[in-house]
Amino acid sequence: MAARLLPAVKFLIKGGLAGAAVYVAHDQGLLGSGIEGAEALRKAQETLPPTIQEWTDYLGWELPPTPKIDFSLSASWNKGVHRVMSALSVAPTRACEYTVEGWKYVKDLVK
């Protein structure tokens, strides 16, 4: 009986953790508009370093200094979206071209 129950318990725990992660992401504004996401990022950048410092002091650990990253997250995101959409827009044409090339190759093999 316990052997059958263990996979169900694992599934429920994993599902609960995934649901909690989605809830927290939604609650913090990460799944909202770009403005809400930028605000959540700003809050995280303000909150995390002091919290991490507090925990490392408590545990007696010493971490290296965090590198300063200076790039636009929204510009990188937009570039990725444009590339994906561009690839999706030419996908049917490319599929037709590759199909024609494949048929020519097969016909040449059969001759």
Kindly list the characteristics that best describe this protein.
mainly alpha, 2 domains, extended, 111 residues, 3 helices, 81% helix
Written overview of the protein:
Component of the MICOS complex, a large protein complex of the mitochondrial inner membrane that plays crucial roles in the maintenance of crista junctions, inner membrane architecture, and formation of contact sites to the outer membrane. Belongs to the MICOS complex subunit Mic13 family. Pfam families: QIL1. The structure is a single chain. With 111 residues, the protein is mainly α. It folds into two domains: 54 residues, no CATH class; 40 residues. Helix content is 81%, strand content 0%. The protein contains three helices and no strands.
